[in-house]
Amino acid sequence: MKRREFIQISALGATALAGLGLNKLTFADEPPEFAAISGSGQEVEARIDTKTGQVQLNPNIIMRHSACLGCYSSCGNRVKIDKRTGKILRVFGNPYNPHNAGPALSYNAPLTESYLAFSTFQGRGHKGRATLCARGNATLDANYDPYRNLVPLKRTGKRGEGKWKPITWEQAIQETAEGGELFKDLGEKAVEGFHQIYDVKTPMDSAQPELGPKSNQLVLIGGRGDGRTAYAVRFMGAFGSVNNFSHGYS
Ligand code: SF4
Q: Whole-model pTM?
Protein backbone atom coordinates (compact mmCIF):
# COMPACT_ATOMS: atom_id res chain seq x y z
CA MET A 1 0.00 0.00 0.00
CA LYS A 2 2.89 2.41 0.73
CA ARG A 3 3.88 2.27 -2.85
CA ARG A 4 0.52 3.65 -3.85
CA GLU A 5 1.15 6.77 -1.81
CA PHE A 6 3.68 7.82 -4.37
CA ILE A 7 3.20 8.86 -7.92
CA GLN A 8 5.61 7.29 -10.32
CA ILE A 9 5.63 10.09 -12.77
CA SER A 10 7.40 8.30 -15.55
CA ALA A 11 4.44 6.00 -15.86
CA LEU A 12 2.73 8.88 -17.68
CA GLY A 13 3.18 8.26 -21.35
CA ALA A 14 4.56 4.76 -20.93
CA THR A 15 2.61 3.68 -23.96
CA ALA A 16 4.56 6.06 -26.19
CA LEU A 17 7.79 4.78 -24.72
CA ALA A 18 6.91 1.21 -25.51
CA GLY A 19 6.52 2.36 -29.10
CA LEU A 20 10.12 3.51 -29.06
CA GLY A 21 11.37 0.09 -28.09
CA LEU A 22 12.62 1.14 -24.67
CA ASN A 23 10.08 -0.73 -22.63
CA LYS A 24 12.57 -3.34 -21.49
CA LEU A 25 15.20 -0.91 -20.27
CA THR A 26 16.23 -1.84 -16.75
CA PHE A 27 19.47 -1.60 -14.78
CA ALA A 28 21.13 -3.91 -12.30
CA ASP A 29 21.99 -1.07 -9.92
CA GLU A 30 18.59 0.53 -10.13
CA PRO A 31 17.67 1.74 -6.63
CA PRO A 32 14.65 -0.29 -5.57
CA GLU A 33 12.62 2.77 -4.62
CA PHE A 34 12.85 4.04 -8.22
CA ALA A 35 12.24 0.73 -9.92
CA ALA A 36 9.82 0.70 -12.78
CA ILE A 37 6.31 -0.26 -11.97
CA SER A 38 4.88 -3.12 -13.93
CA GLY A 39 4.22 -2.06 -17.48
CA SER A 40 6.21 1.17 -17.54
CA GLY A 41 9.51 -0.62 -18.18
CA GLN A 42 11.70 2.24 -17.02
CA GLU A 43 12.91 3.48 -13.67
CA VAL A 44 11.38 6.75 -12.61
CA GLU A 45 13.25 10.03 -12.26
CA ALA A 46 11.63 10.89 -8.93
CA ARG A 47 9.03 9.84 -6.48
CA ILE A 48 6.60 12.26 -4.98
CA ASP A 49 4.72 12.09 -1.74
CA THR A 50 1.31 13.17 -2.91
CA LYS A 51 0.29 14.26 0.59
CA THR A 52 3.25 16.53 1.38
CA GLY A 53 4.65 17.31 -2.06
CA GLN A 54 8.06 16.05 -1.02
CA VAL A 55 10.21 15.18 -4.04
CA GLN A 56 12.72 12.35 -3.83
CA LEU A 57 15.10 12.43 -6.80
CA ASN A 58 16.56 9.34 -8.43
CA PRO A 59 20.37 9.85 -8.30
CA ASN A 60 20.81 7.84 -11.52
CA ILE A 61 18.71 10.17 -13.61
CA ILE A 62 19.23 13.75 -14.71
CA MET A 63 16.52 15.92 -16.22
CA ARG A 64 17.39 18.72 -18.63
CA HIS A 65 15.08 21.44 -19.93
CA SER A 66 15.63 22.22 -23.55
CA ALA A 67 13.79 22.85 -26.83
CA CYS A 68 12.28 20.39 -29.28
CA LEU A 69 13.50 20.76 -32.85
CA GLY A 70 11.01 18.31 -34.29
CA CYS A 71 9.49 21.17 -36.30
CA TYR A 72 9.48 24.96 -36.50
CA SER A 73 7.38 25.42 -33.38
CA SER A 74 10.39 24.87 -31.12
CA CYS A 75 8.32 23.79 -28.13
CA GLY A 76 10.08 23.35 -24.84
CA ASN A 77 11.04 19.80 -23.98
CA ARG A 78 12.35 18.03 -20.94
CA VAL A 79 14.92 15.32 -21.47
CA LYS A 80 15.40 12.35 -19.19
CA ILE A 81 19.01 11.13 -19.28
CA ASP A 82 20.62 8.11 -17.65
CA LYS A 83 23.69 9.43 -15.84
CA ARG A 84 25.44 6.07 -16.08
CA THR A 85 25.25 5.73 -19.84
CA GLY A 86 24.58 9.28 -21.00
CA LYS A 87 21.66 7.91 -23.00
CA ILE A 88 18.42 9.80 -23.43
CA LEU A 89 15.62 7.66 -22.07
CA ARG A 90 12.61 9.86 -22.77
CA VAL A 91 11.49 13.31 -23.72
CA PHE A 92 8.54 15.08 -22.15
CA GLY A 93 7.01 18.51 -22.35
CA ASN A 94 8.76 21.38 -20.60
CA PRO A 95 6.57 22.72 -17.78
CA TYR A 96 8.35 26.09 -17.93
CA ASN A 97 7.42 26.67 -21.56
CA PRO A 98 4.06 28.23 -22.48
CA HIS A 99 4.22 26.42 -25.84
CA ASN A 100 3.33 23.17 -24.17
CA ALA A 101 2.18 23.85 -20.65
CA GLY A 102 -0.81 25.84 -19.58
CA PRO A 103 -0.34 27.46 -17.19
CA ALA A 104 3.45 27.28 -17.49
CA LEU A 105 5.69 27.48 -14.46
CA SER A 106 7.41 30.76 -13.71
CA TYR A 107 11.09 30.76 -14.74
CA ASN A 108 11.83 31.48 -11.09
CA ALA A 109 10.05 28.33 -9.91
CA PRO A 110 12.53 25.84 -8.41
CA LEU A 111 13.20 22.59 -10.25
CA THR A 112 11.28 20.64 -7.63
CA GLU A 113 8.18 22.36 -9.02
CA SER A 114 8.90 20.85 -12.44
CA TYR A 115 8.60 17.38 -10.93
CA LEU A 116 5.41 18.27 -9.11
CA ALA A 117 3.98 19.58 -12.38
CA PHE A 118 3.81 15.98 -13.59
CA SER A 119 2.24 14.63 -10.43
CA THR A 120 -1.19 14.55 -8.88
CA PHE A 121 0.02 16.56 -5.89
CA GLN A 122 -2.71 19.16 -5.38
CA GLY A 123 -3.99 18.19 -8.80
CA ARG A 124 -1.10 19.90 -10.62
CA GLY A 125 -0.60 17.25 -13.24
CA HIS A 126 -4.22 17.59 -14.25
CA LYS A 127 -4.09 21.37 -14.54
CA GLY A 128 -1.11 22.06 -16.75
CA ARG A 129 0.99 19.00 -17.37
CA ALA A 130 3.38 19.82 -20.19
CA THR A 131 3.24 17.59 -23.24
CA LEU A 132 4.89 17.12 -26.60
CA CYS A 133 3.14 16.07 -29.77
CA ALA A 134 3.77 12.58 -31.17
CA ARG A 135 6.46 13.90 -33.45
CA GLY A 136 8.14 15.62 -30.52
CA ASN A 137 8.25 12.31 -28.67
CA ALA A 138 9.87 10.70 -31.72
CA THR A 139 12.79 13.15 -31.70
CA LEU A 140 14.43 10.77 -29.27
CA ASP A 141 14.66 8.27 -32.12
CA ALA A 142 16.06 10.89 -34.49
CA ASN A 143 18.82 11.61 -32.02
CA TYR A 144 20.07 8.03 -32.34
CA ASP A 145 19.38 7.68 -36.06
CA PRO A 146 22.34 5.69 -37.50
CA TYR A 147 22.20 7.90 -40.61
CA ARG A 148 22.56 11.14 -38.66
CA ASN A 149 25.59 13.15 -39.81
CA LEU A 150 28.02 13.60 -36.96
CA VAL A 151 31.18 14.51 -38.92
CA PRO A 152 31.79 16.60 -42.06
CA LEU A 153 31.33 14.77 -45.38
CA LYS A 154 33.38 15.48 -48.48
CA ARG A 155 32.11 14.77 -51.97
CA THR A 156 33.92 11.89 -53.69
CA GLY A 157 31.86 11.75 -56.87
CA LYS A 158 30.46 14.19 -59.38
CA ARG A 159 27.87 16.64 -58.12
CA GLY A 160 24.59 14.82 -57.69
CA GLU A 161 26.12 11.34 -57.59
CA GLY A 162 25.59 11.14 -53.86
CA LYS A 163 29.09 9.88 -53.05
CA TRP A 164 30.70 11.12 -49.87
CA LYS A 165 33.41 10.28 -47.39
CA PRO A 166 33.77 11.38 -43.77
CA ILE A 167 36.61 13.79 -43.02
CA THR A 168 37.87 15.40 -39.83
CA TRP A 169 36.75 18.83 -38.68
CA GLU A 170 40.37 19.98 -39.05
CA GLN A 171 40.41 18.98 -42.71
CA ALA A 172 37.03 20.56 -43.33
CA ILE A 173 38.12 23.88 -41.79
CA GLN A 174 41.50 23.84 -43.55
CA GLU A 175 40.03 23.17 -46.99
CA THR A 176 37.16 25.61 -46.53
CA ALA A 177 39.48 28.38 -45.44
CA GLU A 178 42.39 27.75 -47.82
CA GLY A 179 40.74 26.24 -50.88
CA GLY A 180 42.99 24.59 -53.48
CA GLU A 181 42.78 21.51 -55.67
CA LEU A 182 40.34 19.83 -53.37
CA PHE A 183 38.73 17.70 -56.07
CA LYS A 184 41.75 17.09 -58.26
CA ASP A 185 41.13 13.34 -58.30
CA LEU A 186 37.74 14.07 -59.89
CA GLY A 187 39.34 16.20 -62.60
CA GLU A 188 37.85 19.43 -61.22
CA LYS A 189 39.52 22.84 -61.18
CA ALA A 190 40.83 24.46 -58.01
CA VAL A 191 38.35 25.91 -55.55
CA GLU A 192 38.76 29.29 -53.89
CA GLY A 193 38.70 29.29 -50.11
CA PHE A 194 37.61 31.94 -47.66
CA HIS A 195 41.06 33.54 -47.75
CA GLN A 196 40.91 34.12 -51.50
CA ILE A 197 37.46 35.69 -51.51
CA TYR A 198 37.60 37.69 -48.28
CA ASP A 199 37.79 41.05 -50.04
CA VAL A 200 35.23 43.80 -49.52
CA LYS A 201 36.90 46.27 -51.93
CA THR A 202 37.60 44.48 -55.17
CA PRO A 203 34.52 44.01 -57.37
CA MET A 204 33.56 40.41 -57.95
CA ASP A 205 33.15 41.25 -61.62
CA SER A 206 34.16 44.73 -62.83
CA ALA A 207 31.79 44.33 -65.79
CA GLN A 208 28.89 43.79 -63.37
CA PRO A 209 29.54 46.10 -60.39
CA GLU A 210 26.02 45.50 -59.10
CA LEU A 211 27.21 42.09 -57.87
CA GLY A 212 29.28 43.84 -55.23
CA PRO A 213 32.67 42.86 -53.84
CA LYS A 214 34.37 39.47 -53.99
CA SER A 215 33.17 38.73 -50.48
CA ASN A 216 29.71 38.24 -51.96
CA GLN A 217 31.04 35.04 -53.52
CA LEU A 218 30.47 33.46 -50.16
CA VAL A 219 26.88 32.23 -50.17
CA LEU A 220 25.32 30.60 -47.15
CA ILE A 221 22.18 28.60 -47.77
CA GLY A 222 21.17 27.71 -44.25
CA GLY A 223 18.54 25.56 -42.67
CA ARG A 224 15.93 26.36 -40.14
CA GLY A 225 16.35 29.16 -37.65
CA ASP A 226 16.95 27.09 -34.54
CA GLY A 227 19.77 29.10 -33.05
CA ARG A 228 22.26 28.93 -35.88
CA THR A 229 20.71 31.85 -37.74
CA ALA A 230 22.07 34.48 -35.35
CA TYR A 231 25.55 33.04 -35.76
CA ALA A 232 25.23 32.93 -39.55
CA VAL A 233 24.01 36.53 -39.75
CA ARG A 234 26.91 37.71 -37.65
CA PHE A 235 29.52 35.69 -39.52
CA MET A 236 28.29 36.65 -42.98
CA GLY A 237 28.06 40.30 -41.96
CA ALA A 238 31.63 40.25 -40.65
CA PHE A 239 32.77 38.53 -43.84
CA GLY A 240 31.13 41.21 -45.95
CA SER A 241 28.70 39.06 -47.90
CA VAL A 242 25.03 39.90 -48.35
CA ASN A 243 24.28 36.40 -49.63
CA ASN A 244 22.96 34.82 -46.46
CA PHE A 245 19.82 32.79 -47.10
CA SER A 246 17.85 30.93 -44.52
CA HIS A 247 15.33 28.17 -45.00
CA GLY A 248 12.09 30.10 -44.93
CA TYR A 249 13.16 33.67 -45.65
CA SER A 250 16.02 35.67 -47.10
S1 SF4 B 1 6.65 19.10 -29.78
FE2 SF4 B 1 5.74 18.77 -31.81
S3 SF4 B 1 4.94 20.80 -32.38
FE4 SF4 B 1 6.42 21.12 -30.71
S5 SF4 B 1 8.41 21.54 -31.75
FE6 SF4 B 1 8.33 19.35 -31.28
S7 SF4 B 1 7.52 18.41 -33.15
FE8 SF4 B 1 7.02 20.60 -33.26
A: 0.66
